[in-house]
């Protein structure tokens, strides 16, 4: 998360700002992790569908 999503780019001065930046980074990470799982699930569902 540090290099790929920009967690290390925070240059703020407040604890609240750091918290918000870390939260948004974690949300972006969760979204990116969800994408391949959702795609794999959709492809598996299409394979099991009878023709």
TrEMBL record:
Keyword terms: Plasmid
Entry protein name: Transposase
């Amino acid at each position: 998360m540090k290099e790929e999503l920009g967690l290390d780019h925070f240059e703020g001065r407040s604890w609240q700002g750091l918290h918000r930046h870390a939260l948004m980074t974690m949300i972006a990470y969760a979204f990116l992790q969800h994408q391949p799982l959702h795609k794999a699930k959709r492809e598996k569902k299409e394979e099991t569908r009878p023709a």
